[in-house]
Write a structure and sequence with these properties.
Elements (H helix, E strand, L loop, with lengths): L1 H5 L11 E5 L2 E7 L5 E6 L8 H14 L2 E5 L15 H6 L2 H7 L2 H18 L4 E7 L3 H7 L9 E5 L6 H5 L5 E8 L5 H10 L7 E10 L2 H4 L5 H21 L4
Parallel strand pairs: 3-4, 3-5, 5-6, 6-7, 7-8
Antiparallel strand pairs: 1-2, 2-4
Helix pairs in contact: 2-10, 5-6
Length: 248
C-alpha cells in the first residue's frame, strides 16, 4: 500500500491562499469567507503544504464559492515531495511507522475539532468535507450518523476505510474510485455500492477506468488519460458540493 500512496506527480502552479490557524492547527485557507460555505480538505500523505493539495483547494474555493481549509493534521511532519518520483526514497519509506504516528486514534479527535471550529467558532452554515487517500477515513467518520458536523462528503481513493465506517454514514456521500486501487479494494467498493444506497442518503459513485490510486490528487497532467481523469474528478466534486449544498 505504501508505494501507491507515495507515487504520482507534483503539479506546477502557485497557490493563492494564506497560512493561518483553524483551532490550534496550522491551516492553508483559500476563498471567500463571505460565502457562508466551508470545505474541510482532508489531505493525503504529503500533507497540508503539498502544492497539489493547495492548488485543488484553490479550484474548489473559486468554483464552489467557498472557503477551503487544509489543516496540518501531521503536525509539521513532511514527506519529501521528491519521494513521488524517487523509487529509492519510496522503497526506504517506513509506511507502517508513519501510519502509526497518524492513526485514527491520534488524528481522529483533531479532525472532529477542526470541523467543530468551522461550525461553532466560525459559524459556517454549510460545511462539506473532501478526503484524498489518507483523508478518506476521516471524511467517512465525519459523515457518521449523529455526528452533525458536515452536510456531505466526497472521497477519492480513500485509505484505511472500514465496513463499519461505511455502515455508519448519515450524510450524502460521493466516492471517486479508480479502477486500480489496492487501498479501497474491489470488495470495499462493492460493499459501499451495496450498503450506502440502503442508508437513505444521497450517493454518487464515480468510476474511473484505467486509473490508479492517487490519480485525483497526484495524476500526471502530461498524460492524456490521467489529465482527463483528474479534471473529471475535480469537476465531479464541484458539482456534488454545489448540488447537495444547493448552491446553484
Amino acid at each position: 500500500m505504501s508505494q501507491c500512496c507515495l507515487s504520482g506527480f507534483a503539479w506546477n502552479g502557485t497557490p493563492r491562499g494564506k497560512e493561518e490557524k483553524l483551532g490550534h492547527l496550522d491551516a492553508y485557507i483559500t476563498g471567500s469567507a463571505e460565502s457562508g460555505v466551508a470545505i474541510l480538505f482532508l489531505h493525503d500523505i504529503f500533507g497540508w503544504r503539498f502544492p497539489n493539495n493547495r492548488l485543488l483547494a484553490d479550484h474548489f474555493a473559486k468554483e464552489v464559492n467557498a472557503t477551503v481549509y487544509i489543516p496540518d493534521f501531521f503536525h509539521g511532519e513532511v514527506v519529501e515531495e521528491d519521494t513521488i518520483v524517487d523509487e529509492k526514497k519510496r522503497a526506504q519509506f517506513d509506511f507502517m511507522a508513519w501510519a502509526g504516528r497518524h492513526s485514527k486514534e491520534i488524528r481522529g479527535p483533531e479532525v472532529f475539532e477542526a470541523a467543530r471550529a468551522l461550525k461553532q467558532d466560525l459559524g459556517f452554515q454549510k460545511i462539506a468535507a473532501i478526503g484524498y487517500c489518507w483523508g478518506g477515513w476521516p471524511a467517512f467518520q465525519l459523515a457518521a450518523k449523529g455526528r452533525d458536523l458536515v452536510d456531505c462528503i466526497s472521497v477519492a481513493h480513500p485509505t484505511f476505510v472500514t465496513k463499519e465506517e461505511i455502515d455508519a454514514v448519515g450524510v450524502p456521500v460521493q466516492i471517486i474510485a479508480p479502477e486500480n486501487d489496492p487501498a479501497f479494494t474491489p470488495e470495499l467498493r462493492a460493499y459501499a455500492n451495496k450498503v450506502i444506497p440502503e442508508l437513505n442518503v444521497e450517493y454518487d459513485y464515480q468510476h474511473f477506468p484505467k486509473l490508479d490510486h492517487g490519480f485525483a490528487v497526484r495524476g500526471d497532467p502530461n498524460d492524456k488519460t490521467q489529465k482527463e481523469g483528474l479534471e473529471r474528478a475535480k469537476n465531479a466534486a464541484v458539482s456534488w458540493f454545489c448540488t447537495i449544498l444547493q448552491l446553484r
